[in-house]
Write a structure and sequence with these properties.
By secondary structure, the chain is an alpha/beta fold. 48% of the residues lie in helices and 13% in strands. The protein contains twelve helices and ten strands. The strands form two sheets. A seven-stranded mixed sheet has the order 3-2-1-4-7-9-10, with helices on both faces. The chain has a three-stranded antiparallel sheet with strand order 5-6-8, with helices on one face. Helix 4 runs antiparallel to helix 5. The longest helix is centred in the first third of the chain and has 33 residues. It is globular and about 65 Å long.
Length: 318
Amino acid sequence: MNPKAQKIAFDITKLRIQGASRIQAAAIQAPYWTAQQTKAKTPKSFQKELEQTGLVLMKARPTEPDLRTAIRIIWKAVFTKKQGFLEAKKAVLQACEDFSKNRKSALEKIAIIGAQQIPQNAVILTHCHSHTVAAILKKAKKKIKHVYCTETRPLFQGRITATNLAKAGIPVTQIVDSAAARILKTQNVNVFVTGCDAILANGTVINKIGTREISLAAKQNNVPHLIFSSSHSFDPLTFFGWQEPIEERSWKEVWPKKPKKVRILNPAFDETPANHVQKIVCEYGSFAPKAFVTRMKKEFKVQHDKKEYLNILRKLKK
């Protein structure tokens, strides 16, 4: 495997690269460098190298459909056409460049659409860190009165959000995760916003652990939960029986010097039901969760490309 591609996979696993959009942006560099520096001489050996790289990346963070979508699009540039080695190499490089431009444009669209969803004098609660959410809040800066950010244990990604918003001149307060319900009740919060790591075929949203509890508390306090995300967070594989894995991370992230007889559970994500979410905002617009799924089924050509999706499922299960 290409050393640069291997480092990207390692950095994704270790959370040196995090946030669905940034993981996807980094992941697309792996097939690019694989193509640039390949030692393959035939289309078949080149395809095998690309497949190995793609599968390593997909397994680096199992709960990241953005990453899988990126790899699938690059694979499609090579695996679905009969072409010589040089043509295949050129096709991958071009597909990577086109994909990066497309995603940059998508983020700009989401920022515009998302900013329109933020109410005037907004008091906002956020959880974890999302590059997309940060871009939207910066875009909507003039409408925002205050933002409360959870610290997001155990790796404190909420500190990244708080730091970025403060640098942008947005009034921000950091809170401990367990204070979220109280803040919703006592600080006149009028919107709860998060990104997401995956959206399933039934509209369920997978995001950083703790999202479900805060979303429930928001619903109990009549505070809408808005998801700001690229359409690529939708996971078409869930139409075909794929069970989105909930990554279990190392206990050392929680308590590095724990007593020997204490057991630690450290799930990275949880599942927020569709009926807790008011809107999912992506580059195509603002949708109720069920309407979002209907639109994504069309955009991802779920039925037309069924064989392709089933093939990816087989590879992931090996």
